[in-house]
Structures are given as C-alpha cells and as structure tokens.
Amino acid sequence: MAYQTNELRGGKDPQYEVIIIGAGVGGIYQLYKLKQLGVNVTVLEGAADLGGTWYHNRYPGCRFDSESYTYGYSFSKELLNEWHWKERFSGQPENLRYLNYVADKFDLRKYMQFNCLVTHAKFIESGNYWRLRLQDGREMTCRFLLTAIGLLSTPTPPRLEGMETFEGPSFHTYYWPQEPVDLAGKRVAVIGTGATGVQVIAALADMVGDLTVFQRRPNWCAPLNNAPISDAEMADIRARYDEIFAKCLRSPGGFEHEPDRRGFYEVSREERVALWDRLYDEPGFGIWLSNFREIFTDEAANAEFSEYIAERIRKRVKDPAVAEKLIPKDHGFGVQRVPMETHYYEAYNKPNVHLVDIAQTPIERITPTGIRTSERDYDFDIIVYATGFDAITGGYDRIDIEGVGGQKLRDKWADGPITYLGMQISGFPNMVTIAGPQSGSASTNYPRGIEVGADWVTGLLEYAWEHGYTRMEATHEAEEQWSEHVAQMYSTMLMRKAKGWFTGYNSNVPGHEHGRIRYFVYNGGSPKFRSTIIGVANDGYKGIVFGRRPGSNDDDNPRPQRLKREPAL
Ligand code: NAP
Hints:
Number of helices: 18
Distance between the termini: 26 Å
Bound molecules: NADP nicotinamide-adenine-dinucleotide phosphate
Structural class: alpha/beta
Shape: globular
Oligomer: single chain
C-alpha cells in the first residue's frame, strides 16, 4: 500500500521520539525506562487495555510456570515490597492485576494508547524516521520504533473445513471470551495438547459436563507443584529478592533453577534417579532446567530420562492404553517446550474426560454440531482450539514493515529471522526489536530477559541522543555473524530435530512445516547473552552504524526531542 506524504510536526521533527508497539510485560518496562529519561514516547496497543499475553489469555487454568516472584519486575524496591504474590505460580487474573498495578503506580497509563493496531510501518529515508499507520487509518511518526509485540501473540487456529459452520461458541484459547463462559454441564472439545492445552484441559475437566481432547501428538509434561504463598513466606522472599534476582541473572534460563553440574555418566543410575525423584516433586521447571545438561544434547541420556518420565505417566494414568497414548514416541523429554501441569494426567482418570488420538483417526471437518473424524461424528456445545501460535516472527509478519529501499521485513525473514543480537535488523534503521527473534531474552524467563534487553536498548538510545545521531542501523556483516552464531548453537541441541515452535514448526502456517528449521532463539543462555551485549555497548556499539539525516549538518540534528516531557496525545 502506498503511503501519502505527511508533513512532519514542527517542520522536521517526528511526532514522537519513540513509539513502542505493545503494552505487555516488555512494553510497560521499556516505557518506564524512557519516561525516567523524560523521553517523548507513546505506547500503541492493539487491544483495549494493557497486559499483552496476560490480557488476552483468559482461559481456565492459565497461569505462570515461572515462579511468580521471579516473573515480577525487579527495578523497584518499593514495588517488590508492596506486592504480595499469593501463589507460587500465579494465575492470569492476578498477573493482569499486577501489570495494571505497576502501570498505575508509575503513572504509565497516560502514555499508552489503546485500540491502536499498527498495520503498517515505513522507514522514511529522507528524514530518518518511521511513519506508522493504524488500522483505523490514522498515521503517526517517530524517530525510533521499538517493538514489544511478544513472542506468542499471533494465534493460529487450525485450517479445518467447516469451522465457520459450527453452531455453538468456538474460539482459540488466546481469544477466550472476556465475559464468563457457561461451562456447567456442557460437552466441550479441546484440540491441542501443548502448554496451553495441558493447562486448559486439566482445569476444564472439573468444570464441564463432558470433555473430549483431540490429541495429534502428546507432549512430555511435568508437575508444576503449585502452592499458596503465606505472609511469612512472602516476607522471606522479600528479604531475599536481591539474592533471587542475582541467581536468575547467573542461570542460563533466567530462573532460580540451575543445571546440575555433574556429568550424566559420571554418576550412577541410582544417583540419577535420586535427582529425578527429587526434581519431579519440586516446583516449576527444575525437572527440565536443573537436570543433567546431557538431557539437551545426548540421545542416550535423553532417552533414559524420557523413559523415567514415561514410567511416572504410567503410574498416574489408570487405563494403560490411555497412558501409552499420552507418552510421546516421536521425541524425547525437553526438546520441545515442557508444559507444566496440575493434575493433567489425573484428568484422564475421570469418567467425563475422553482422549481421541487424531494421529490415528484424523479430524476430517468441523460440522454444525461438532467434529467429524475418520472414525465417527462427535457432538459438542463448545469447541476450544488450543492450537498454538505463529511464534516469534508472526507478530512481525502481521505488520507491513518497510525498510530501506522498500524492502519488506516479511520478505527478508521469509525463511527465518536474521538479526543482530536479536535487537537490530540491517535495512531497518531506527527499529529496535526488544526481546526480538534471536535475542537471549526470547529464550529465558521472560521478564528477566526483558529487563536485560530493555536496559540495553535504553543505553543504545541514550548513546544516539548524546551524540546527536538520528539514524542507527546494524551492518549486514554484524547481522550475518550473529545469525550464524545463533544457528551454530542449535547444532549440538537435540531440539533442532523437534516439531516445536523453538524451531519454527507450525502445521497451520504455510512455510512452517517440520524440517525447515528457523533459528528463532539464542540458546547460549542468559549470562552469555548479557555479557555479549554489554561488550558490544562498551565497544561503542560495534556492528551498528550511526548517522545523521542525509544532507543535514549537526545544526539540523538537535537533541531536544527526548527532553520534551509530555507526548501530545
Ligand atoms: P503449542 O505448544 O504450539 O501447541 C499446539 C498444540 O496444538 C499441539 O499439541 C499441536 O499438535 C496442536 N495442533 C496444532 N494445530 C493442530 C491441528 N491443525 N490439528 C490438531 N492439533 C493441532 O501451543 P501452546 O500450547 O499454545 O503453547 C505455546 C507456548 O506458549 C508454550 O510453549 C509456552 O511457551 C507458552 N505458554 C506459556 C504458558 C505459561 O507460561 N504458563 C502457558 C501456556 C503457553 P502438534 O504438536 O501435533 O503440532
């Protein structure tokens, strides 16, 4: 679509120095950082309110699987002292309340504009700024464009014949209705058994009349072991916050969970099982992240551990035939994102819960009254699609992003993302993808990675402002090197063969079929990523070329924009 030329406000300055797209966990923190500096910034959010993933995902059972107190922001002692996490793994309503509390406490809401879905973004080379167009036709300009659009924000329903003919309510979990859904006594279908499916299935089992799960491939799941947090425990957590966040910063995943330093083969089978027995009963991702490192790289080690988990599943599911269906046979434990569950396996012991193996009897179509498989027709009142997301790059593909020379980002990334440090893209100057594809932030406990990413981005912008630069762009060479490095790190990981979103697999998105690996995430761990990006900053932002507007001199490039206190909303 052609852009009409717009006059820049005030003759030569864009309307905003910075526009952040997205008012989720990342956008909120990035806004806070820039407001601290008095920058002329606004946040554009497509939804009707803030919260990002925690605004949208309202399905029953939706909750953290990061420990709540490691998921909260770390930047304010006052905030840490005020907020009481009620559960070790807090649920969606509480998480959304938390984000609203943060926005209100730091007076951030007035810098956010809601129902502002950005559909186009074009870099205007003659003036070194971005022009955005919203779904409602409005246009806005900014010097620097920061994307905080999330990793899993583009839901992908299946492409099944007849979906529009179903007469009852049907929705993707991301669009679970805001108003209460009447579930009592209803016949409900869930398609999909990823981390979302596993949460919603376990929760619905107790809420509906009859629940039928359509499973194409099972996942390896492990117990979340959630529990309430008492006042005394919260007081202890508050006293230890510095220590907790320091530990998260040291660990590869940004969690308190650190890998077992012993070699898998250096210890006896009994010692391995003793570790696994302990981890299985502990809260959170320990079973995945505090395990032996060989689980991620060594087929035999992974197979031994997978068999241990399979036995656990067999013990929890009463019907041996159902148990076997719930045990993955095509991949080992942890090579895909591990869903954390609360009584998920026990749900299949209930008389009202049924499992349909659609690898054996595929879904043929959705009918007005339900689902038809190759075997039979099923009637339902409600159909829930827990079928995942066009992960990592889907949010970018939805916006028509045009860089230098008319190049479209979705064309550049057609075979997978290419970035510098996961935050800069050659050919797309002045655009920063905080926690973007190939960044360390994308593969860790999200807010821990976000804070690292947004702090670095803030430093980068300050550097530009201090030097009067109005243009910055990663070099092609720096980007090539980083992307090769990211790809290289996949080479030792069993994950590279998996059919999961870490490698860009999504059967509902053309071009994302299994086997076409997309190097989406940085697998070097959080400490290494952090030290790399700090090194780049200390080296004068090596790999990024700074400049001024073409044909301008220094006088044309004053720096006062960031000092304008209030955006013109
Ligand atoms: P997902 O892991 O991609 O799982 C999608 C599921 O739907 C898979 O079981 C998939 O089967 C199935 N599916 C997809 N298309 C289908 C079709 N056409 N027919 C039948 N089945 C189909 O998506 P997700 O469960 O939404 O999880 C995505 C990510 O969100 C997670 O990995 C996690 O990072 C995040 N998440 C986080 C939390 C949390 O923090 N607490 C909770 C939920 C999700 P196949 O495997 O056969 O393709």
